[in-house]
Amino acid sequence: MQNKSKYKEIFIAEAKRLGFVSVGVSKADFLENEASSLENWLKKGSHGEMTYMENNFDMRLDPRILVPGAKTVVSLLYNYYTDDRQIDLQAPKISKYAYGQDYHDIIKKKLRELMDFININIGKVNGRVFTDSAPILERAWAAKSGLGWIGKNANLISHKQGSFRFLSEMIIDLELEADKATTDHCGSCTACIDACPTEAIESPRIINANKCISYLSIELKGEIPVAFTNKMDNWVFGCDACQDVCPWNRFSAPHNEDLFKPQGGLLDFSKEDWHEMTEEVFRKIFKKSPVKRTKYSGLTRNLDFLKKS
Ligand code: SF4
Ligand code: SF4
Q1: Is 112 helix (H, G, I), strand (E, B) or coil?
Q2: Nearest atom, ligand 1, residue 241 CA
Q3: Taking the domains of the chain in order of start, what are their residue ranges?
Q4: CA angle at residue 243 from 240 to 248, to 5 degrees?
Q5: Phi and psi at residue 254, in whole multiples of 5°?
Q6: Which residue CA neighbors atom 8 of ligand 1 most closely?
Q7: Which of 212, 232, 302, when mutated, tests ligand 1's pocket best, judged by the most ligand atoms within 8 Å of its CB?
Q8: Does residue 258 carry a catalytic annotation?
Q9: Cβ-count burial of 222 within 10 angstroms (0-12 exposed, 13-18 middle, 19+ buried)?
Q10: Is 196 close to ligand 2, i.e. is its CB under 6 Å away?
Q11: Local confidence pLDDT in tens for the 309 residues of the chain
């Protein structure tokens, strides 16, 4: 037990040095409470075209299938909140997480450094690192490890830091002292449900992706259904509406990660700059950005849809 808590202490200190704002530990186990809600969500088709969500059902619920021999799931949060805003209030809106460079590579690199640190300073440890890259219920693990609760907007919320945090995990065969889950502090608040422009939050913590602007503007491959005309609230990539109104985000402090700073004058773009963007400009501005996921064709589809609204 002494080793477990000592290892955890030095491990957390190194994670913080690398820039993670919070670290929580859970025993690698079957996520019993989440099984039926995941099954129901999939059965209702709330995942839209994200058919990959149907695969690896058992693996999603049990990290020991994903990483044989796993004993511990470490959840880590990385801040991406910023006070920076787009200058032109009429310009199509982009989610804060996409202002800078793509977080996947940046965070993965830090997780690998952390893994190397463990191997050098604690001992030989096997495992894998993930950020939005594997069949893992990331929010459920983060909540289980006490990093926050899953709010009615389905985001992980910390009462000290809000919800503008990237989630990542290390699934390892090292035993560490597990943390306790925290309690839900949404109370009677319904601000996120009321603010959602497309009524995608069908009940607390249940998002119908088919109606969610994040899904419609990023994941959906075909045309945006006409039913969403005038409902996209001018979002061109992602949507922060249900986080922006969350009272717990009043406690968000800006990140200090240079790589997340807005790229290529992005926040200065006027409405006209967006609508006149050429493929060449798109490639230049979004070269390292999460926005490149939509490709130029996806972004122009979204822009054209907004224009019609
Ligand atoms: S991201 Fe936007 S569309 Fe999706 S649930 Fe939140 S407020 Fe609604
Ligand atoms: S806006 Fe209110 S209900 Fe929604 S997640 Fe935040 S605290 Fe919970």
Answers
A1: helix
A2: 7
A3: 2-83+94-172, 191-250+262-308
A4: 155
A5: -60, 145
A6: 196
A7: 212
A8: no
A9: exposed
A10: no
A11: 557 778 899 999 999 999 999 999 999 999 999 999 999 999 999 999 998 888 889 999 999 999 999 999 999 999 999 999 999 999 999 999 999 999 999 999 999 999 999 999 999 999 999 999 889 999 999 999 999 999 999 999 999 899 999 999 999 999 999 999 999 999 999 999 999 999 999 999 999 999 999 999 999 999 999 999 999 999 999 999 999 999 999 989 999 999 999 988 999 999 999 999 999 999 999 999 999 999 999 999 999 999 987
Catalogue the E-assigned strands of 115-187: 127-130, 149-150, 156-157, 165-172
* Type of residue numbered 199: E
72 CA from centroid of ligand 2 (Å): 30
Tokens of 290: 């999460």
Contacts (Cβ under 8 Å, ≥6 apart) of 132? 104, 138, 166, 167, 168
